[in-house]
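Hi everyone, sorry if this is the wrong subforum. Our group has a chain we'd like a structural model of before ordering constructs, and none of us has done structure prediction before. Sequence below.
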Amino acid sequence: MYVCLCNGVTDRHIREAVDKGCSSVGELTMRTGCGASCGSCLDMASEMIEQMRAELPLPVLACAA
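Answer:
Right subforum, don't worry. Here is the predicted structure as tokens:
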């Protein structure tokens, strides 16, 4: 689904960015262009980032064990 119509950013683009470590709307805008034009997509993008980050597994600590 398209999240940012102005710049052609889809939910897949956002998921890929979050999987690669994107953790804020500002960073998402720099990486994908989402929200760089009219900004009407920023609320939805922010919610998606929060939801996707909550679904990510916790990182394994290198020094544990």
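For your construct planning: The radius of gyration is 13 Å. Residues 42-55 form the longest helix (14 residues).
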